[in-house]
Amino acid sequence: MYENFFGFKEKPFKLVPNPDYLFLSKSHEEALAHLNYALSQGDGFVEITGEVGTGKTTLCRAFLENLDDDTIAAYIFNPKLGPRQLIKTINDELGIPYKTDNTKDLIDNLNNFLMRQKIRRKKVILLIDEAQNLSKNVLEQLRLLSNLETNKEKLLQIILVGQPELSEALNSYELRQLGQRITLRYHLSPLNFRETIDYIQYRISIAAQKPGLKFDHAAYRPIYRYSLGIPRLINITCDRVLLTAFGLGRHKITGNIARASVKELKSRGIVKRFQLPDWKTITVISTAAGLLVAAAILHQPLRKAITSWVSQLADSPQLAATVVNPNPTATGNIMPDITSDDPIAKVADPDTGSVAVSVPTYGTDEQTAQGTMSDLQGVSSPQQTGSRDGGSDETAETILTSPAIDDELEAYADESEPNAITKLADYLTAMDIRNSRYSALQDAMNLWQTPIEVQPYLNSLDDDQAFFRLTTKPKGVFMHRIETDLTMLKRLNMPAILELFPTGSEEPGYLTLSRIEGENYVFGSPVKSLPVVADADQVNLYWSGVAYLPWKNFLSIWGTIPKRSSKDSIITLKLLLHDLGFSDVEINDEYDRWTRRAIQEVQAKYGIPVDGFVGPLTKMILYQEKQTFEMPSLIN
């Protein structure tokens, strides 16, 4: 409704688990790191818990989206199944055919599939969301499935994600055998106040097509107090805040607008939860209790005690105000209830006291921005109210911090010789291996014009792949690991972080291949003055063949089509193919043979595996084919 008014391509606070909007707070980063670590170590059981609305499902989708081609996943999000139904669902998710309902045969088919994948050096994981809904019989069946193993390792990794009740079930005496097999546990926490601010700014930046919205710093606190840092409640609150501002024709979100929106949500009973009473409420309750006790001790009738209490209220206006309105911060001009039953509702501006008209939810953005609301806005109201933040509401601006770039990473640059060239062998000899992954990632992100700042706790990650993924994700950049050669990288024509082993080192270092000039491969960032240059033979001498490709999912085509994807993603893919000249592709939500044939044609053109599946690598080349997205290239 308000997208065009604020300059959004879509609503930024939708209640859907879109991985594109995953904000990695410290807790979310650590949870994702636990998942990646468990995957790399082959741990049998992993448990991730979190309160309702903390972003567990979004985290699951983002984790699955970033799996490499060597990992096969079965994702179950509706686990209210019986033991036999569970095994059948797992087989369906993994594409295992079966012709029987016999549990033993179903497990045998699954075991045979897992053994074949182990021979192919593939990992297989089972991720169950909303796992608190699993019955004890099904949990026991999962324990039996964990017995599918070789002498050295598990054939199937099982990840259980759910609400705190899941932990209670796994810690019960009846399920102690399963509980003892949980090798990694992590509880997802709500956001703190600073993270709530960053979360709101992050979602707005993802959805924004142009700058057109400002949050006063005073607007964040009522949102945080109401939501308690739970992402789903933040989304509900912010959506209401934007709707209120839209109804008032305001592009600036003040503290008063935020409080008015929160007040409306409270009045509608969106969230009812236990809260500790404030001191005034405690005073009222204590006074009433004291009078009742006194009445009992002095043998006074209850009516007389109540009459005495009411008289005290009449003599104490402040106490009476507390009883009538125990939340004094919510007084003033509050936005009335706006519903579809009220086609034109008057909205009192909480900042000025003026009255605007809120159009119904079925109106268009153009009608809202230019029509009736603008004509009627500004009608005076007898009630006037100022800022409840001591006057700071009108002056406080949202503070946006730019990521800092570490100056010590410029140590190799020689300012006295801006055009100097360093040979690859010499650079690797002097390389700080531990710091090289940060330096290389910084170079790659500069090429994407997306500077980064690494959180200190991510530097302690030993898993380099997890380090790259977790660092780039908050910036909307994905990292795809690939084992390939220079010819393929040249065809893909995208900057890549290469895994290099300096002479005599057992640990890899990293450099970003930023461009190719004739026979020379140039490493580093254009903002640095000292490039590292090598020919193909020199690169192959040190390169392991592993490369990390940063990329952006410009059109939000999620999952691996057609294995794990939504209908919206298939439609978006078909629209993209249609733009690329594949006119035979019919625009619907079915992945038909015409679509597969078009994908295979594009895959063959770039020399990647022609399998008809749309994974990260295929998405990258499709975006390159479109030629309208801002993507860095190796060869200009």
Structure in words:
With 636 residues, the protein is of the alpha/beta class. It folds into 5 domains: 159 residues, Helicase, Ruva Protein, domain 3 (Orthogonal Bundle), CATH 1.10.8; 163 residues, Rossmann fold; 47 residues; 145 residues, Alpha-Beta Complex (Cathepsin B, Chain A); 60 residues, Muramoyl-pentapeptide Carboxypeptidase, domain 1 (Orthogonal Bundle), CATH 1.10.101. It has 25 helices and 16 strands. The strands form 4 sheets. Strands 10-15-14-13-12-16-11 form a 7-stranded mixed β-sheet, with helices on both faces. A 5-stranded parallel β-sheet has the order 2-3-4-1-5, with helices on both faces. α4 runs parallel beside α5, α10 packs parallel to α12 and α13 packs antiparallel against α14. The two termini are 42 Å apart. About 17% of the residues have low confidence.
Write the layout of secondary structure elements.
Layout: H1 3-6, H2 26-41, E1 45-50, H3 56-65, E2 71-76, H4 83-94, H5 103-119, E3 123-128, H6 136-145, E4 157-162, H7 165-170, H8 176-179, E5 182-188, H9 193-207, E6 214-215, H10 220-227, H11 231-248, E7 252-253, H12 255-268, H13 279-297, H14 302-315, H15 317-324, E8 345-348, E9 355-358, H16 365-370, H17 372-376, E10 422-423, H18 424-429, H19 433-447, H20 464-472, E11 478-483, H21 486-492, E12 496-500, E13 509-517, E14 520-523, E15 532-534, H22 536-542, E16 543-551, H23 567-579, H24 593-606, H25 616-626
Parallel strand pairs: 1-4, 1-5, 2-3, 3-4, 6-7, 10-15
Antiparallel strand pairs: 8-9, 11-16, 12-13, 12-16, 13-14, 14-15
